[in-house]
What does this fold into?
Amino acid sequence: MIISENREKVKRKALSLINKGSSDLSKPEKKYLLEMLMGMVLTGSCNLTEISRSLKESIKIKDTLKRLGRMSCKGHYLEIANKISLNCSKAKVTDDTIIALDTGDITHQYGKSFEKLEPVYDGSQKSTQNGYWLNQISGYNPKLNETFPILLDMYSTAEEGFKSANIESLGLVERVREKVGNKGLWVMDRGYDSGEIFKYFLKNQLNFIVRMNNSRNLILQTRAHNIEKIALSINRRVQFSSKSRFGSKKVYFELNGTSYKVTLICFKDERNKKPVMWLSNGWIKSTKELKRRIRGYFKRWSVEESYRFEKQGFGIEKSIVRKFDSIKSLVGITVLSWLLLVKINEVPRLKETVLKQSRMEKTKRKHRPKFIYYRLLKGVQNLFNGIETLFRFRLKRKLKNRIKRQARKEYSLFPDYQMKNMGLEL
It folds into this structure.
């Protein structure tokens, strides 16, 4: 009975998550999102056939598949998922939060019939393949050691109305800024060393740290110098760790005739033959603040792990739906699936139960995956092993009434409480 109660707790978490976007959803759309969310978590796949099988409905799998395929064609689910995610993450973002912006991809190496396929750079394969671009913003709270999704967007350069990758990225940043203001430290990689990106961040006075390319010029003592030449002249006198040191220099960044105060940070360790260069807003005097920003940049890898988790945990690249709107819908549901695991992680008792269910082969702390959501995902999957029916709202009325009568007999003392908390209407 304890196991069934924990199952119902997980399902209620999923339902409460979807209800946060209820104003934009009809009742059939709520049911679709609930089924897809739980199906994706339990199968670890975006394959509609696998999800249909996991629902364990009394009708044929092909009929369930037909219903899910029809509902997936609505392209607004990604927007609704982002709206829910942004509202959930708003309270988590503080001044110490690391907000990482990064570009990713979904590739279909051999696919030819997918809508709006365009060449994208696959970072894992170091080659150009057909697929779609992703933009993701994730947050990391150092005090809680917690990573959480904020926004995820998918676009194709063949889309109508597409202008540039910078506009797509800045559109997401603007949405986050409207919700959380100037809180947090924005962290970006070399791909965002762009005049348009710097113009937006400097104009809106956002705190940021960006890894720089060698081609940028900066103003030092009223003259323009190559950034690499300035970086090599910096005395790296501050020890960051036993194998790394860094230094900084106050310079100006000239943009459209306006000079902005920025700090150039030069970092060297054993892994990099050449020094790593970062640019951060303002003239930073405090060594403690410089170290915080450098640590924040290294936490940017949590976004890379987020992409890996979405691809491995939910099989985002293995979906075989061909319509562009359907693919966007599946991407949106991966955001909700991750959010469900975040919600489980926030409840200590439920988290402990789910982690026990994960039954990892290697139990020593050094062998555990640092990204806890892998273990939570495995735990939820094991928790729901052996169920006869995932949801009861698709059952025939006679069968549903019979289950209710049986529950009243088993829990005669508190029938109303049990009906409400056993999720018999789910």
